[in-house]
Task: structure prediction
Amino acid sequence: MQSLGAWLGSKESSWGESVKAEAFFRRLWGEYVKIAPRALAVHDHVARVFGRVENDHVAFRTFNRPGFSLDELFPAFIRLGYREGEEYAFSEKHLRACSLLPPSDELPLVFISELWLLTKVYG
Result:
């Protein structure tokens, strides 16, 4: 399984630096409907009934593992033009998270939460 950070490209990757956020979310949706084809049918039905479907936020749930950590995903969104939002730490739930603010009003807010699989102290 390829990590999202690798999918967006490393910080040294010219593709990773030039990819646009809109293209990223189109690709992400395309990959998602390949593994969950009913999502497209639901999306199309909601669009027919209520009009255009817009995502105001997208949440990524991840783990503190190489290739999947919050620290690796965060810079990938910065390269897409997102700005740092809030940071959160929920030590009793073994979770930390952050929000990223979109470069334009047409793009969703991004929220990334990371479950700590090993004891790790943030703070």
